[in-house]
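Q: Sequence in, structure out?
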Amino acid sequence: MNAIVEAFAFFLGFLAWLMVGVALPNRNWKVSTVDGNVITTSTIYENLWMSCATDSTGIHNCRDFPSLLALSGYIQASRALMIASIVFGTFGLVATLSGMQCSKIGGENYILKGRIAAVGGVFFLLQGICTLIAISWYAANITQQFFDQFYPGTKYEIGEGLYIGWASSVLAICGGSCLIFSCKVKSPIEKIPYVYHPSSRGHAISTVATSQTSNYGRNAYV
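A: Exactly. Output:
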């Protein structure tokens, strides 16, 4: 595996892991819309953990969701997927760092190190997929409620936390793909150099012939 590809993929995975950590506690997953409202006295914004409101004077008031079981199913699923994404990303960072050629783990067995790095790529892919599903599922519910004319509650728009999550999923999938497709599954066939040794048969024949000729020459004078 190319060391430059490993370093680039590790950088993408690490950046994606950081962005998941930024997106998860971000409060602006969805923000109340001002569409159709002439006067807006307060703005409501929510994430997976709490709901906040700010008025025209700039005073913020946040409250955690009181009950887990009372939440909508997509919020519970998005929580689980985002936590799993962070766990997969942590495993991916450890595996990729262990499998890089510049690390001392695994010795000089670069085939084994490449396979370990490929396992890290799989974890990065899982991280990106989990993040992508959670963010897209949450955004789909926002857009569905926004375009529903008969929805009685407050309508929201997509917040900045979702965009950070989408960017994180793309980086994680790209980093994992680089590690997987650049892995050498089989060891390369070593070419054994062939050393040419000239045959001594011709030399032996010529020696025998010379010896017979010399003997014949000596006998001719007897």
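The longest strand covers residues 50-55.
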